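Handoff note, outgoing to incoming analyst
You'll be picking up this chain. Sequence as last confirmed:
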Amino acid sequence: MTVDPLILQDQEALDLPEPTRQSFILRVWVERTTEEAGQATWRGRIVHVPSGVQALVDDLDQVGLFVAGYLGRMGVRLTPYWRFKRWIERRK
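Most recent structure output, in case you need it:
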């Protein structure tokens, strides 16, 4: 059995002090199944645990944008893709 490197990174993150990590809860559910609509439709809710701030999501990019906002505040330099996505989202 191989060990997933992401699992190791997650364990290492648990040992970091609080200001250098964030916690999120993501809940997803299927609203319409493939049988009902021809294509499954999902929704979700993401919660930033320390603050309780929540967002409803129906697209994986929305999850990334939500998390990217907190990473940016922590001083993480986002890739050009995520900086552009955040800029577009703010212009809406």
